[in-house]
Please model this.
Amino acid sequence: MLKSIRLRLTITYLLLIVTVMVVTGLVLLNMLEQYYLASEEENLERTGRLAADLMAGYMQDGADAVMLSGVAENFSRQINARVVIVNRHMLVVGDSVHLGGLLGTKMDRPEVEGALQGEIGRSTQYSHLSEQWVMQVAVPIAEGGDPLGAVFLSASLNTVYETLGAIFRFLVLSTVVAVLLAGGLSIIFSHHLTKPIKELTQAARRMAEGNLDQNIPATSGDEIGQLAQQFNIMAAKVKEMNQRLTRFVADVSHELRTPLTSIHVCLQSLQNYDMGPEEQKEFLQDINQETQRLIYLVEDLLDLTRRQEVADKRELFSLNEVLNDVLEVVVPRAERKGLSFFTDIADNLPSLNLSPEALKRVLFNLLDNAIKFTPSGGWLKFSAKYSNNEVCIAVQDTGCGIPEEALPHLFERFYRVDKARSREMGGTGLGLAICKEIVELYGGKIAVESREGEGSTFYLTLPLEGRPGA
Model:
C-alpha cells in the first residue's frame, strides 16, 4: 500500500517520535506521581507524629473532646487535611470537622487497627462520597510502649492529580507540536533524500526505453550522491558500448557485404553468360578468393567473441619454448620472401601462467603483418627479455611504416591504414584489435612506434602473473 519511500520515511519518523514521546510521557508521569504521593505521605506521617507526641499526655488522663478537636483543627489548617483522634477502643475523641464530624463514633478502619498495633497505617483510595482520591495515614499514640490511641489523617490528592493533569496536557501539546514539526521536517528531508532516487528511477526508465544519453546531477558526497555518480559512469559506459556495438555491427555488415556482393556478381555472370573455360576459371578463382576472405573474417569474429574463453584457459608454460615454436614457423616464411630475420631472445625467460595458444595468436599476427608489409631485401628483428617482473617482446621491421595520423586508430576494429592494399593481402582489420584485447585480458600492454617509409616496431609487455580482465 505504501509504495512511496517518501511516505514510508515520513510515517516512520512520525511513529518513532510519537512512540518516544508517549513512552517518555508515561514514564515521566509515573515518576512524578510516585514522587508527589511519596511526598504527601511523608508530610502526613511527619504531621501525624507531631500530633501523636502532643496528644500522648492528654490521652493518659482522659480525653477532652473539645481540646483534642481544637488541636486537631490546628494541625488540619497547617497541612490542609482532616485530622481525627481515636482512643485505644477506636472511639473518635477529637475531629477537625465540627459539623458533621465523627466525634463519639467508632472508627473501625484497617489503618487505625494497624496504628493501635504500633505500626503506621497507610492507604490511598478513591472516595465515592467526595468523588476524589484521598490519602489516609494513621500514626500510633503511645506512651512507654503502651498504645493510647491513634492520629488519623486524610488528605485530598486533588492538587497532586491536577498538577499531573497539567503536566499531561503539556506533554500532549508537546507531542502534537513535535509531530507537526517532525512531519514538516521529515517531508522536506525525505523529499531531499528521495529526489535523486526518483531521478535515478526516471533515468533508468528512459534508458530502458532506448534513450541512453542520461546524466544525474550528483550534488552530495553521501551514499545517494555516490550512487548517482556510479549511475552516470554506468550510463556513459552503456552509451559508449552501444555506440561501439552499433559501429561494430555496421563495420561487420560492410565487411561481409563486399565479398558477398563480389560472389553474387560472379555467380550471376556464370549463370547468365556463356563463358569459355578460362573465363569460368577466373570467375571461380574470384569466388574462391572472396569465400576465403569471408572465412578469415568469420574466424576473426569468432576469436573476438571467444577471447575471454581463451584467456581463461591458463597453464604454466616455458616462454622460451613457445617463442621457439613460433619462430620455427615464421622464419622460413620470411626467408622465402627474401627478408633477413634477426633474434635477440634472453635464455632465462620465466614461465608464464596464461594461454600459450592465445600468446601464439598475438605473436603470429604481429610477425605476419611485419612480413607482409616489409618488401624483399628488408629485415625483421624479434627480441624478448625479462625485467621489472614483466616480459617485454618487440617485433621490428623495415617495412612501409604507418602514417602518424593512423597510429591512434591502429588497434581499432576494422581499421585499415590502406584499405585497398589490406584487402589485396587478405587482411580483415581485426588482427591488431584481437591482439590488443588478448594482451589486456592478461593485464599487459601493446604499443607501436612507426615512421612512414622507415618501418615499425610493436612492443608487447606481459606481467609475470597475467590476470584475466573483466
User: Anything to note?
Assistant: The chain has eleven helices and twelve strands. Residues 5-60 form the longest helix (56 residues). The longest strand covers residues 132-143.
